[in-house]
Amino acid sequence: MDKSLLSKSLLGASFTLLAIGTGLLLWQPASLDSSPLSDNTPIRQSAGPIPEKAELPTSEYLQDRNQPQTLQSTTAVLQAGDSLSRTLSRLGVNNRQIAELLQSDEHQVLSSLKPGQKLTTEILTPSDDLQRLTLSETREQTHVFTKSAQGFSYQLDITPMETVLAYKEATIQSSLFVDGVRAGISEKLLAQVTDIFRWDIDFALDVRKGDRFALLYEQKMIDGEKVATGNIIAAQFVNNGRVFEAMRYQAGERTDYFTRDGLSLRRAFIRSPVDFTRVSSQFNPNRLHPIFKTTRPHQGVDYSAPINTPVQSSGDGKVSFVGEMKGYGNTVIIDHGQGYTTLYAHLNGFAENLIAGRSVAQGETIAYVGQTGWATGPHLHYEFRINGVYQNPETVDIPFDSPMTKDELVAFLPYAQKLSKRLKGSHSQDFSEYLARLER
Ligand SMILES: [Zn+2]
């Protein structure tokens, strides 16, 4: 550092640089018109713009303010339990300016701090003057408070997020979730996988070692960094040698998953309308009744489940009966239209406001498992009828949900072809060879 007394003329502005014992240089601008700084400028910029010129001392009488001003930037990553004023204090903000911040119009965005968020101060020292406070709420959103003539002005900065298609594949050795996470797939995406294919694959029972799956999904990026994942756009799941495929598409009002031929993966009925522990009695037209010891056909399936396990309507429809039926105990019957009806018996209770004539949606809770009527233990007795004829609920051919219209299909097919190609092009060689072997 140059310790000699020197004076410089720069763009008509004259600067006096004084050497003092500590080695610090004092900057004494004779004019405010001083934006270009020489190489040995005494201002140490850590971040942000050069302080406003009007902030700089102009009078030689204000000797104590005639010190080098440095803008110091400090960042704190919030921890659980951090309070705003304590954190600001720790970051060097004085009490007067903390009060000013809390009076600003948008101060409430500072009142819901969460662990992991970043709070950054830019303070002019030694005048101890906060110039700017930023709260990075997410990678996308930053709240900025800038010192102004009237306290602090507020601005929300949005960093644009870009969405790209990303690809992942995995082979199951122990479980979908363990091997999926090991392959770098988030649990959120894995939950989407089980949701998409739940109509064809029972993920609790059917998945086996050697099953494979592949995904094309939305990857959200900011400045080239992965920040979040969105929807699965296309997926393949090979279960026990059978290949299932799903493509996300908006057909009319609904966005759903379809096969490459445009068939909805969603079915008109859920296979089993309760989360059961086991099938305690199968559909059997010639069964010996456990109580009466006579041949009595068992016209449905019994699903063993704890008392009060929710029972869902297996499809969209209208309630046609709610109440007690001899032997069946508390019972609900749903009419799904086109000749389809389902019956739910031995219920402990009904969902609130469930009355005959009301519409119910697929998956809606209509009642709770019980042991009413002639039942030897808590279970759901479930019947499935087509035009009055009892069907085996476990094996009945369940129709696909409302198919695409012809126009929708015409638009979908070329898209599906493109997506298929993209998926194929993303497969590892190993995965491609595996699929090729299955197709032979
Ligand atoms: Zn039964």
From TrEMBL:
Cofactor: Zn(2+)
Molecular-function annotations in GO: metal ion binding; metalloendopeptidase activity
InterPro entries associated with the record: Cell_wall_metabolism_enzyme, Csd3_N2, Dup_hybrid_motif, M23ase_b-sheet_dom
Subcellular location: Cell envelope
Domain M23ase beta-sheet core positions: 297-393
Superkingdom of origin: Bacteria
Compositionally biased spans, kind Polar residues: 34-44
Domain Csd3-like second N-terminal: 170-285
Region (Disordered): 34-56
Keyword Protease: yes
Major place of residence: other
GO terms of biological process kind: proteolysis
Keywords attached to this entry: Hydrolase, Metal-binding, Metalloprotease, Protease, Zinc
Protein name according to UniProt: Murein DD-endopeptidase MepM and murein hydrolase activator NlpD, contain LysM domain
Organism (species): Marinomonas fungiae
